[in-house]
Write a structure and sequence with these properties.
alpha+beta, four-stranded antiparallel β-sheet, two-stranded antiparallel sheet, 3 helices, 6 strands, globular
Amino acid sequence: MSRTVRAQLTNAGADDFGYRPAVGAIIDRLKVALKGKCLPRQLNPDKNGQVQCLIIEARVSSGACDCPADKARRPVSDDHQPAVKGIKETKTANPNWNCFCEIVQCGDPVDSSQGELQACQNDLSTTPVIMSGPDVGMAANGWCYVDATTSPATGNPDIVKDCPATEKRIVRFVGTGGPQGGSTLFITCAGE
């Protein structure tokens, strides 16, 4: 059965204005999962091994907000600004957060490569190395989804071997793609 959810758009000051409740619930429920914990919910990788997730890092910057590409970061796109607005409006938001960056998913067609995705999903080391493409030998940076419950497995099942049998999946951060000190990560994913 399909259900349509409509946003309340008449009272901008209300807690239920727009999609605040949905964004808040997603953020509150999933931000805990970013601490290296196994995921109870399965995501659906596309044919390139990527999942439809957005990971935003919120932090306090003493100068201009910097989202350096060499640390697998990019400025939050215009399309994703509603997520930043939702983060700012959560009850746990730090009023001093003044820098928001997207963390790049390994394999991103613009800011990464399939070699970087393969390294993140398959190399067991804490600093995976790219083994194919033009960046051979370089460290992989960013994040990826590993799921031993798919057939075939999405990535190396040994990466999630310590997870409970029903939760053998993880969002894995590698190289400089991990959270910076003092930052908070937020995730939202499309899926079932």
